[in-house]
Amino acid sequence: MSLLFDEYGLPFIVVRDQEQKQRLKGVDAVKSHILAARNVANILKSSLGPKGLDKIMVNSDGEVTVTNDGATILKMMDVRHQVAKLLVELSQSQDDEVGDGTTSVVVLAGALLEQAEALLDKGIHPVRIADGFSMAAEICCRHLETISDEVEVSSERKTALVEVAMTALGSKIVSRCHRQIATIAVDAVLAGIKMADLERKDVDFELIKVEGKVGGKMEETTLVKGVVVDKGFSHPQMSKELKNAKIAILTCPFEPPKPKTKNTLSIKSVEDYEKLHNYERKTFEDMIGHVKKSGANIVCCQWGFDDEANHMLLQSSLHAIRWVGGSEMELVAIASGGRIVPRFEELTREKLGSAGIIREIQFGTTKDSMIFIESCANSRAVTIFVRGGNKMIVEEGKRSIHDALCVTRNLVKDNRIVYGGGSAEISCAIKINAEADKIATLEQYAIRVFGDALESVPIALSENSGFPAITTLANVKTLQISTNNPHLGIDCLKRGTYDMKEQRVIETLIGKQQQIMLATQVVKMILKIDDVIANEI
Ligand code: ADP
User: In angstroms, rounded to a whole number, what is the distance separating the alpha carbons of residues 30 and 113?
Assistant: First the structure.
């Protein structure tokens, strides 16, 4: 290090060590990337499966989140390393595409990288390894189709849907009442689809809202056939229940119009003041007049209104909800069959929404209240109302329900399933080993280790359940081969059978295929990076 001075005489330090530092390139770079990515994957390993552990994440504001969801853990981890960030994105894209399997996909990618490292040590070029992995992933996806089963998906027969949702919820905080919550998630998805949709294999997630309130027990989580708005009626003296509601859905405020440009209004006399006051009063009266004329008995307003307007609404026997969020306004409009109206003059009877009943419900001793809009004109909009002892549980409950909703939707899209507990992975590993022998090129090695990497899922599952991992895996694997039964996996919950078909541990085929494809893609990408050029400031 040496001290120099610039042309203004200001001192600066030259750090000579930097010159000797070398940027990692080639195989060394690949290896250091693998190390970084594996570290991230190892963190998630202990969270996999029904006996997986949760993690507490504390953000920079000291806010605490307890979760078991891979995507959430990684998102909150503040990963700095550029290659490790790829794994964060991997988990995120699995979440976006499939919604579940976010932990498994990262564990698999970590295991693939570990195997790739050993091959690099043997002197095999990263590109050959990447090619081998692609071939193996394709073999896997094809094999998964052959071991998959088809289930019937319809509103009458929802057992399979519930079972898939239950598997997704098995490792979450909600597992205590996972059958109930799985049924709620399935009912929510089925409520949102019309028969035509069932043929089109499409689910509109926008009609399903997940809302939570701290308090009560997880078992009190319910499916509301309508919309829940996290607000109370604007005036405490408005009655708490309104039947046969006709809703005016307004995006204009109950306020006298304000000029959009800056200007000053000077009031110099008492008459002027009274004129202004009367003008404001008249404006409110006109507004309320418009609402009354349309035949509405409740106003759902995106903006606020001042006390005067609030009082006048009460006097005119109108219910009102203010500060309703934009997306909630849309849901209210969809559910009630009403139109969102931007000006009072445009309010007409045809634009009103209708609901059988609107109730304000108060919770506990806190003055917290929520509004339930039920028996709506359009019964497809539903809300899952999550309860839980504290905010962390409610938030984790919401995340778990998102997973359950996603897997149910996936099954509506494609009704093929594979069995969980690592059984599908073990079966693929066996298949891959057999196929590897048939390939004469160097890729054979990569294909073979792909099988070993797949076994990391059952290994992690049995480790997390406190079993001797390798022995258990070896047992299950030999049993799969000797009985030719691809449904044998790790009996995490000690139910006395390895058969996941019997245990009803079910995952969707597209979810599993997506996991394998995505993990392979990211690993290939990491293997092909041999230099990092950063624009340091
Ligand atoms: P992810 O975020 O990847 O979904 P999870 O923690 O939900 O991770 O764990 C999913 C894994 O746990 C899957 O491999 C699934 O097959 C397995 N699993 C879930 N329930 C059971 C069970 N009852 N018995 C054995 N394995 C199970």
Answer: 10
